[in-house]
Amino acid sequence: MPEPALVLDADAALAYARGQHDVGFVISAAADEKLEVIVPALCLAEAHRRGTSEDVPYLELLASLPHVTVPGIGMDDCLFLGGFAKTVGSLHLSHAVIEAARSPETQLITSARELVTRILPREWPVFDIPPADDGE
Amino acid sequence: MTKKIAISVPDDVAERLAREPNVSAYITEAVRRNMVAERVHEMQRQAGMDIREEKIAEARERLVKAREAWTPELHAKWLALFGEMNRVRAAGESRA
């Protein structure tokens, strides 16, 4: 079973890139706490889609940090990816839910608590951040 | 390559190490984990990011507090979700 981790959704990745909402401090703290940080590939891709050229170096930095992993989607996950997306509204947020559900004690940084807890138990530890200010 | 070194540790650490079958591997793993954290801070500092220690300490407290949300009841709910996902995966594999 995977170790507990910290999962970032697309808005959290953008907040990191923009130095907003203390996400960078949480990423640093996770390293101190020996906690793996997971940026699901679809969340990182969505952050790049919505980000500006100024965000790119920081998104690349995030993905390159030694305690960060960027898992992709395997064949086994496609059923859940599509199925959960019907509930949470997007493939990238669905990917964040799948990665969060892989291990107990995993925490999630998201702007979409209400949506993700339609799949995850309502008491799931979530760090709330506002949606990224990018017009979406 | 490895290097043999002699170190002094407090009594409680020595007692813990006495229970390890491979003390060198245990210490190496612990130091490597600390090196990861140092590297993370260094990479962010070089990128010009804010790495104020007091803010990181606050964030550490948030992480620890969030971990406390994992009650036995939440573990049970996670296990039910995880089990259901594994059951569906297994059913998909048997159909293939």
Largest sheet of chain B: none
Please give the radius of gyration of chain A in angstroms: 14 Å
The H/E string of chain B reads HHHH
User: Which stretches of chain A of 5+ consecutive residues score pLDDT under 50?
Assistant: none
* Bulk shape of chain B: extended
- Class from helix and strand fractions of chain A: alpha/beta
The largest inter-chain interface, given as chain pair and residues per side, is:
A-B, 38 and 40 residues
**Termini Cα gap of chain B:** 47 Å
Rg of chain B to the nearest angstrom?
21 Å
Order of helices and strands of chain A: EHHEHHEHHEHE
Total number of helical segments of chain A? 7
Mean pLDDT across the residues of chain B is 88
Mean pLDDT of chain A: 91
Write the layout of secondary structure elements.
The complex is a heterodimer of chains A (136) and B (96).
Chain A: E1 5-8, H1 10-17, H2 23-32, E2 36-38, H3 41-50, H4 56-64, E3 68-69, H5 75-88, H6 91-101, E4 107-110, H7 113-116, E5 126-128
Parallel strand pairs in A: 1-2, 1-4, 2-3, 4-5
Helix pairs in contact in A: 1-3, 1-4, 3-6, 5-6
Chain B: H1 11-18, H2 23-46, H3 53-67, H4 72-95
What can you see in these coordinates?
The complex is a heterodimer of chains A (136) and B (96). In chain A, strand 4 (107-110), helix 7 (113-116) and strand 5 (126-128) form a beta-alpha-beta unit. The mean pLDDT of chain A is 91. Chain A contains seven helices and five strands. Chain A has helices at 10-17, 23-32, 41-50, 56-64, 75-88, 91-101, 113-116, and strands spanning 5-8, 36-38, 68-69, 107-110, 126-128. Chain B is built from four helices and no strands. The model of chain B has no long low-confidence stretch (mean pLDDT 88). With 96 residues, chain B is mainly α. Chain B is extended and about 55 Å long. Chain B has helices at 11-18, 23-46, 53-67, 72-95. The termini of chain B are far apart.
